[in-house]
User: Fold these one by one.
Assistant:
Number 1:
Amino acid sequence: MESEIKIAVIGLGYVGLPLARLFSTKYKTVGFDMNQTRVDALMAGHDATLEVSDELLQSAIAGGLVCTSNIEGICDCNFYVVAVPTPVDENHNPDLTPLYGASTTVGEVISKGDIVVYESTVYPGVTEDECIPVVEKVSGLKYNMDFFAGYSPERINPGDKEHTVEKIKKVTSGSTPDIAQIVNEVYASVIIAGTHLAPSIKVAEAAKVIENSQRDINIAFVNELSKIFNRIGIDTQEVLEAASTKWNFLPFKPGLVGGHCIGVDPYYLAQCAQRHGYNPEIILAGRRMNDGMGEYVANQVIKLMLKKGIQVVDSHILIFGFPFKENCPDVRNTKVIDIYRALKEYDVNITVYDPWANLEIAQREYGIEVVNTLPTAKADAVVLAVAHKEFVNLDFSSFVLPNHIVFDVKGVLYKEVIEGRL
């Protein structure tokens, strides 16, 4: 099988690149991305997302991995893997535009007997009802007669150097029993943690979308607890620490829920439910709770400032962290921007400091300036929004004025050095 299969990975982002690198250890592999700048950087041996180390990437390229933006470079492949983003629009409706584009690309190169496997997170039915018809139309081939499909949901955790792609169990599926076995064997040959062969593509799609929806709902629950305990006057972190002594208590923590998965996938599941005539109350309630946490944090900071007699208008607030999670440059769907925008309504001066974030992307996507050098001016309030490893042991007293506020969104600082936290 290894000598017969040549893999093309469509989309070389946080999901596609690590997967292409891994596949290249066993198969002839080509990575395809429309962003020529991205392709050039990868072929030069550097991944700006930091998901694949320069050493690993350069080793993969030396071993035969090719990255290209030229569609002719993937014409002779026979196992296509689609790993493009699946965002939502401003109204939280699923935006399948990247999937349609990738499916068009596959349709232009796919041949008889080939397999296309989708990894992008979707609701049940998207692969076969939305993507495959595009491939059929462009290629002129018939599904499950001339070409075949599979679905293997991505489980990449950006910034996590312990749970890398080969160490996370992979769900696989195929459009026929025989194709399912082939898809499973290809993934099993490189995934150390093993695979789980789902009985159908729709089951595999559903499994992925509920994984992140479940986490979203659990985080929404503890976010609501945080609001309740704040009113009571007890510390949420201390309550959770006490509750965690029970063996089956789920150790979720309150916080911001952003990124390309947990903050997005529930909307895909919700729309799927609504299309089938069911209004998903719990899923959408969780989304409303989590989407409102940035504004809640901002309001708590302002209240604490007022209680200390700090003049809010024209005050200086320093926000530590901008990506959606720690130790990662990924700013997609970051909820730190919600804190920033809510604070701006009070006519305050804000500095956002982050040593990880891509400053150009932050400016382009959100219209704000993020700095990557520690500010020297002291602030009236500091908000620890992202728990980068560089922040955890910082002496925050050196960044604030004597009468100050330190608000710990992540719950990682000692209680003695903060005035508020979730």
Note: The two ends are 52 Å apart (CA to CA).
Number 2:
Amino acid sequence: MAWEFLTVYWREMIRFVRFKTQLFASLLQPALWMAFFGVAMSSNFNRFASAIPPPPGVVPVDYLTFMAAGVIAMTTLFTSLFGGISLLFDKNWGLMREMLASPMPRTHIMLGVSLSGMTKSFIQVAIIMAFGLLLGVQFFPGYPAARIVLAVLGIFVFVGVFSLGFLLFSSTISMRLESPEGLQGIITLLTLPLFFVSNALYPIQAFPPLLQVLSIYNPLTHLVNGIRYFALGTDFFAVGAYYSYTTTDLLVSFSYLVVFAAVMYVVARWTFQKAVVT
């Protein structure tokens, strides 16, 4: 059947809902980042940035609003990188052997896991935006209702493509490892460089030249660009830096994420086709 991946998807979502601790932690973590880190750092960054006046006619954005887009990206990154860990549990419990031996195409396994991870990311993004608005995040400034809907859809499209790429990457690693501890070690090694060598928390203009180059090739930077384009507009001033996004910039960032996801799909597909679980 062409829709067998939905069985894997549905199983992953049931697992997500039934594991109350995982569900609670995954939904609470982004809210805590917004409530503690965002609010605590906002006053400091706003005070430092107040010494630099914004250009005439440019809308100033406070730090809490600026970093809220980064929190959305950070949460999507963490959720996606850990998305493949369920495959490791299936391998350890003997379920993966049965799934690979079934008539279901192997690509449906990775698609089902990836789509469930994307759904989890969408849920978390919606929670972050709703909770952020309660804290005073000024997303969608002056937008009419129709534009807000389009902006939210745009954010979800960027989050979905980015999440798909890293979920496929996580699935590839999981199929090559034997223990969850190994995956956790790799994820821990990757998350900090990806997160801090990006524009999620602060402008990359202040980075050393090497880090600026690395940030340009960091998929997380392109996700943040897309989120800020839709949530804050094309021109704004934040943390002492002027930001201007054009349609070309948006298309470049989106194309970069699409290419990244496509490469990860090819790698994951090859890995699943060659996988042998004993």
Note: The chain has a mean pLDDT of 83.
Number 3:
Amino acid sequence: MNDLNALADEHLAAARADAHGRSAHLLLRQEPLRQTVIALTEGSALDEHNAPPAASLQVLRGSVRITAASGDIDMSAGALRATPRERHGVLALSDAVVLLTAVND
């Protein structure tokens, strides 16, 4: 079992040391399911990308904005929601750690 708090601390520290302000760890891979811990420093982003068939984003630390053509969605620590089923990006509004759960075909 992985300790999400410890992983959040570890990857937030790694993101702060990274030139691009990001760090990620594939936590679980049981096809078609994947869970990834992603840390972003304030102002860092995951560029716009295609949405998997099904996915959710849970904010473990800080706050993020999901950017999409249908409208932006702000989320803070403790929030959990399905990701938009369209191209979207993620912007860190503060130093943040999220858990991305995705089902791929």
Note: The beta strands are 22-30, 33-40, 45-49, 54-61, 63-68, 73-76, 80-82, 88-92, 96-103.
